[in-house]
Design brief:
Elements (H helix, E strand, L loop, with lengths): L1 E5 L4 H12 L3 E6 L12 E4 L5 H11 L3 E4 L5 H6 L1 H21 L4 E7 L22 H20 L2 E7 L1 E3 L10 H13 L1 E4 L9 E3 H13 L9 E3 L7 H11 L4 E4 L3 H9 L7 H7 L7 H18 L9
Parallel strand pairs: 1-2, 1-4, 2-3, 4-5, 5-6, 6-10, 7-9, 8-11
Helix pairs in contact: 2-4, 4-5, 6-8, 6-11, 8-11
Bound molecules: 2-amino-3-ketobutyric acid.
2-amino-3-ketobutyric acid binds next to strand 7.
Length: 320
């Protein structure tokens, strides 16, 4: 399968690329960032700006992907500090991807949506079909992307599908999200023995371990269209408080100092998101089932973080 991925230099792409290459896909990447160390040599890496349609179109016209996975986006915390850029990247970027798919006959566009499409005051667990009233630029642009993709499916026959990701955790450094405190507890905990989370210990949002997140993308991508009752699905795995995550880290790193100092801006973003998601539709339509909870994730993740930082004595990969 020929697959073009936008924004694959970020947190998801780092784990996704080797899996796609490993299963025999022919993969190209379109990203503003340079090719990172460790990118599989089979992947064609093209640097370009998603807000310029011509740059993307040139690659799509040449590579002729059957699928386009659209990961490029500015996340929630970064989006609040540069809202106009977030609007441009997330809105124009998504339109350019869908338009490239229409112009060059790409069969499927996979969209990475987020819990940030939801706004405050929803009773958990929050289902797929509640009113979407986000209060961040990131959330607003992701709602628009969901709707635009459905428009392209209805009017131009593009097979548009995607998931609303919770906060994602892996052994790396994420780029500009508000859910990042969870990952930093593991990475900074190992690297420097201490981390001060920018939220209150009671903060609770949905989270998912990256191997589950990548598997969700692959399973939904391959699911028969006839089974899918909708384009965009909530998916869920765990919904620990920040304190519960700190406890899981401390159980594996007893000397670590994990403290909390709530930053009003980032706390407000977290408080606007749901505590937990209802992912019944994903489970019923395409058999979604998470494998990792907080404990099994922590057992699997901690040795990877140690290998990345402690034993190598190196710095973790920084994703744009
Ligand atoms: C963020 O924190 O902005 C992202 C997300 C929840 O979509 N990780």
């Amino acid at each position: 399968m020929k697959i073009l991925i936008t924004g694959a230099g970020g947190q998801i792409g780092t784990d996704l690329l080797p899996i796609l290459v490993g299963r025999g896909d022919d993969v190209a990447v379109f990203d503003l960032a340079p090719r990172p160390d460790g990118c599989p040599p089979e992947v064609e890496w093209v640097r370009g700006d998603i807000t310029y349609a011509e740059e993307l179109n040139t690659l799509v016209a040449r590579f002729r992907p059957e699928r386009l996975m659209h990961l490029a986006a500015i996340l929630s915390a970064a989006g609040e500090s540069i809202p106009h850029r977030a609007y441009r990247v997330n809105m124009d970027g998504t339109r350019n991807v869908l338009e490239a798919a229409r112009l060059f006959g790409v069969e499927q566009v996979f969209y990475t949506s987020t819990i940030a499409v939801f706004g405050p005051g929803l009773e958990a667990p929050v289902g797929d079909d509640v009113p979407l009233q986000p209060t961040t630029m990131y959330g607003i642009t992701k709602v628009a992307g969901e709707l635009l993709g459905e428009y392209y499916q209805t009017n131009f026959g593009i097979d548009f599908r995607g998931v609303r990701f919770p906060g994602l955790i892996n052994a790396g450094i994420p780029g500009g999200g508000t859910s990042d405190y969870a990952l930093f507890m593991y990475v900074e905990g190992v690297r420097s023995g201490a981390y001060e989370s920018f939220c209150s210990p009671e903060s609770r949002i949905p989270f998912m371990y990256m191997p589950d997140a990548v598997r969700a993308m692959l399973e939904l991508m391959e699911a028969p269209k006839a089974n899918l009752g909708r384009c965009i699905y909530n998916i869920a795995a765990m919904d620990p408080t920040a304190q519960a995550i700190a406890d899981a880290v401390k159980a594996r790193l007893p000397d670590v100092q994990l403290t909390f100092k709530s930053d009003p801006a980032r706390q407000a973003i977290l408080d606007s998101w749901p505590d937990a998601l209802d992912d019944t539709n994903a489970r019923n339509d395409w058999g979604w089932a998470h494998q990792y909870d907080l404990e099994t994730m922590s057992d699997d993740l901690m040795p990877q973080v140690r290998a990345l930082i402690g034993m190598d004595g190196g710095e973790p990969a920084v994703h744009a």
